[in-house]
Amino acid sequence: MALRLIEIIGADPLPDGLPDTLRDDKTERTDGTVVHRLLVRSDQVEPMLNALEDAEVYVLSVEAVLPPVEDDLDPEPEEKAPGLRWFGEVSLSEISERARDAAVRSGLDLALVASSSVLASAGMLQGNEAVVVGGMVIAPIIGPLLAVTFGLTIVRMRLVWTALWTSAQGFATALVPAVLLGLLIDVDLEAELLALRTQVTWWDLGVGLAAGIAGAVSFAQDARTAMVGVMVAVALVPPVAAMGLCLGEGAWMEAISAFWLTALNVGTILAAGVVTFLILGVRPATDDSKGPEEGEDATVAQAEAA
Question: Taking the model in full, what pTM does it have?
Answer without folding.
Answer: 0.71
